[in-house]
């Protein structure tokens, strides 16, 4: 009897234990309805996510919450999030892209030491992604790491890229849950990848690849950017979103905590569906993801490209050069035609 209890306890512990420390939780339990995402604004930065990169229609056109939108192995969340992109998904007047993206809202430093960016992704057999156009998924603005869809080597696969170079890809089968963790060592300047499907524990599929790892803690885009195809809506499902310091939690669905209550940093707050917030972050941050006039990019910084929304003006005497158009433009010394 006592032994059985012990075994049960150990099993329970093994099934629910979490290895690292969650430094930011994107658990969707914090959002009773999708309208609650609207509670966030630049003047009232509440909740777990910044919500401003989407099209001209209402939030409910682009976001939906439902148990069927999460990985069933994820027991820490009631709902997953369905993200939709369609021809109305034009943000900031740029009709070359259709995008629906969430950004972490936190005062935690998401770019220090070794961190694991966890998320699970899936898509249903309806509103299928269009493999004839490039998609960027869960990307950093400098694109030092991201997933893509609709790109080489196999357009129907989810492809993991480091600085625009593919290192891993897997057939993006409808109805299958794909679990990922970007393994980013910001100190060493390397990125690796952990992956699994369904309820399987994450395994390392790519070890440390050198990259210019950096983030201002508000440029990781959870969601989808599609180069405009002028066409059909696409549905993408997300769950199990959180960032932890190591060691990595390999079991799926145990690390997300409950709606921010496991976050160790300040800046997480409870939001309500009525539009009032219970706590408000006191820091007033500006984001590089807004295309504001004024800021200039310094040498070797990014100054343009698909999905890039930062400064496009270069500090003197530099100019913006097409390194890998249309995806990446970088500041370099002026080039003269003679
Ligand atoms: C957004 O929702 C409001 C309230 O439900 C509605 O009155 C309005 O027409 C909607 N706007 C768009 C662009 O769908
Ligand atoms: C792409 O992947 C699909 C599904 O795994 C496979 O059937 C197809 O042969 C692949 N195409 C190429 C060009 O590798
Ligand atoms: C991250 O990189 C630093 C610097 O190379 C290294 O000392 C550290 O051990 C790495 N962290 C892990 C967890 O491997």
UniProtKB/TrEMBL annotation:
Highest taxon of the lineage: Eukaryota
Key words, A-Z = Signal
User: Record's Pfam families?
Assistant: CBM_1, GH131_N
One molecular function GO term is: cellulose binding
Residue ranges of domain CBM1 in the record: 295-332
Chain spans, region Disordered: 252-301
Give the signal peptide as a residue range, or say none if absent. 1-19
Q: Does the keyword Signal apply?
A: yes
An example Gene Ontology CC term for this record: extracellular region
Q: What is this protein called?
A: CBM1 domain-containing protein
Q: Which organism is it from?
A: Mycena maculata
